[in-house]
């Protein structure tokens, strides 16, 4: 079997890594990239015995069949498939069956390959931990390799610590040490290994639906009328498509959707669907005896039905990776299929080509932006906003993700922070959520405690900031200056003046105002005069709270609090 160029490259990446390192590694490959073929090639090339683990019997059978098609023999260890063989050079097993067999776990293998490895948890007493610990006991030199399309979990974050491109994902222990190869989904579509997707987001999808007054429906999922209109549209689109896959928000929602689709041409699968019934439904759908398949958090991984050409998403997700997994179900090639229509009725708004950021969207209108580090040059991916020319208007990154390897010490994370909390003792920059200075260990003031203290003092004012304004002003010296006005919901203002004529004044403006107020910190800021500053007013954000002290001639700003998360209400919060 001839490997595609990227499949060959991923196999070579595995060989190179394990020749030099013992640490667990992961390959990130999109849905439809042919992970089972890569597994088969690795198993063929391996000198020792190889164990391939996964969580569903369908993948066990699928991966096994690819190796057999390459002319190799292999065993299957899966109670669900009625086979428990584990003596061959290559064994394909389900984690459930293997964890229940201590004898099989005590065999010696040179490599363990875990498919859909984002499900792995190597802490506590999980099945994967028990099996990996037992296999490592049998062979301390065991190599551990994971394959997934989504190396991120909402409950645990990234499943690996660092990327081969020099990005640090986590300083905390993770199941895998390094992502040694990652293939972007856009490359597969461009090279025609996957079917293009036409994604229609919730706002536009709502225009497809009729309403009583001809106005676009608001498309609120779980409201009966909206679900009815969506299902009516899916039924209308049905004859134009071979297979329709629907992602529901809950079991109750899935049952509601199923009740509005053609009864003899639709089925529902949930986590509670018995195994035999689930297998029968999937087979009917794959054989195109069913047109519509509704599921609730079940068919996001390990499900292969290439004829799917319409996907309806009626559930929200905070994960770019999960969204891409859902869309990926419809991207496999199939005769006569030219595109997959994706109707995102939940308005998730993610791009199919966006990398996973590792954080939920801070605002609905944000997307993934590339932010270079001004210190090391590393290109970071953060949530943010761009203008029509691709210039970054705002981003929400905290620290550069670069992994610096100078060859003399252990690789370390770049210490540049886009957003930070300054230590009053040593002036070191700390993470905005830090409670102690990382450099001198001084306790950093808790924002809630700070606000509680100053609210008790008569000579202090706490402004719940709702906005900021910049305006020109003439200083007592006669020079042109800048007036900064912070204001609350009732229009109360606190003002501060800055000169902007000398290099020292420009430095004071940047240090005392600009660096903390920038919407896109770390981006180049070249403002030669007052007019340029005023023209760039949109680059600055307002703080959540402004603390001022009363002096002889008015209020003096002594502190601004950004990125506040505490018990006091912010200006943009509901009453």
From TrEMBL:
Q: Which residues form the Helicase C-terminal domain?
A: 229-369
Pfam families according to UniProt: Helicase_C, ResIII
Q: Can you quote a single GO CC term? A: cytosol
* Record-linked SUPFAM superfamilies: P-loop containing nucleoside triphosphate hydrolases, Zn-binding ribosomal proteins
GO BP annotations listed: translation
Taxonomically, the superkingdom here is Bacteria
Q: Sorted alphabetically, which keywords does the UniProt record give?
A: ATP-binding, Helicase, Hydrolase, Nucleotide-binding
Matches recorded under InterPro entries:
Helicase/UvrB_N (IPR006935), Helicase_ATP-bd (IPR014001), Helicase_C-like (IPR001650), Helicase_Restrict-Modif_Enz (IPR050742), P-loop_NTPase (IPR027417), Ribosomal_zn-bd (IPR011332)
Q: Which residues form a coiled coil?
A: none
* Domain Helicase ATP-binding, residue spans: 16-169
Task: List GO molecular-function terms, semicolon-separated.
Answer: ATP binding; DNA binding; helicase activity; hydrolase activity
Q: What is this protein called?
A: ATP-dependent helicase IRC3
Which lineage is the organism of this entry classified under, starting from the top rank?
Answer: Bacteria, Pseudomonadati, Pseudomonadota, Gammaproteobacteria, Alteromonadales
